[in-house]
Amino acid sequence: MNNVTGVNVPNNLVADYGSVYFDGHGGTPEVSVAAYSDCQSLLKAGYSVSGIYTIFPAGFADGLRVYCDMETDGGGWLVIQRRQDGSVDFYRGWADYRVGFGDLAGEFWLGNDNLRTLSNSTGSWDLRIDLEDWDGNTAWAEYGDFRILGDDYSLSFDSYNADSTAGDSLTFHNHWPFSTRDNDNDLVSIINCAEDVHGAWWYVACSQSNLNGLYFNSSWEQNGDRRGITWVLWRGELYSLNKCDMKTRLAI
């Protein structure tokens, strides 16, 4: 970790896929900045390069390592999930999703404990979801007043941005607890949705989105399998996406 307040970093560390920015893995900068509590504050202070930073939001006395997206839609986004190449197994249990897993410079889940503490700190947080299909087409969806609540990590938000291009495949899951293969909190009594669609999510009966689903190496490889990375109102229930990420920032 580079515990300094500023570093010289390359301008090309982030690969641009349309309107969606995914980490290019090479030379990802890492910065520790005790004076700032979120990615948006860092951006306003002049840290304009996407990369790994240590921030100090309320509830994180020792700091929190995060990936800041300083490019998408004005920047200042704190990335909480990324899928881009299938290098990390997302079919995991409750304990892993609680603490988080993966590589901030690649695929990862930030951790439900971290999301709950962060989203209930000072201010209102927006949630943005960026998607990319196998033809390079991109779409996004955005939600207001995003929070993770309680011991069951329930999803909560109060609005959907009607300008979103991906359609709304998350409101179906609003106010529902998180489920994993070993902690079934969905509405269906005869199956465990997390097992059925091979993921972990705020399943109801079962899902209109499944961004922690099984990673397929192409759209044709999925071949009708429901277990993929899906956003139903954009590419349908049986189309597994190439890339996606979830990110949050304080409402502007």
UniProtKB/TrEMBL annotation:
Stored PROSITE patterns: FIBRINOGEN_C_1 (PS00514), FIBRINOGEN_C_2 (PS51406)
InterPro entries linked to this entry: Fibrinogen-like_C, Fibrinogen_a/b/g_C_1, Fibrinogen_a/b/g_C_dom, Fibrinogen_C-term_domain, Fibrinogen_CS
Residue ranges of domain Fibrinogen C-terminal in the record: 30-252
Pfam family, one: Fibrinogen_C
Gene Ontology CC: one annotated term: extracellular space
Gene3D superfamilies: Gamma Fibrinogen, chain A, domain 1 (3.90.215.10)
Keywords: Disulfide bond
NCBIfam families associated with the record: GGGWT_bact
Official protein name in the record: Fibrinogen C-terminal domain-containing protein
Organism: Patiria miniata
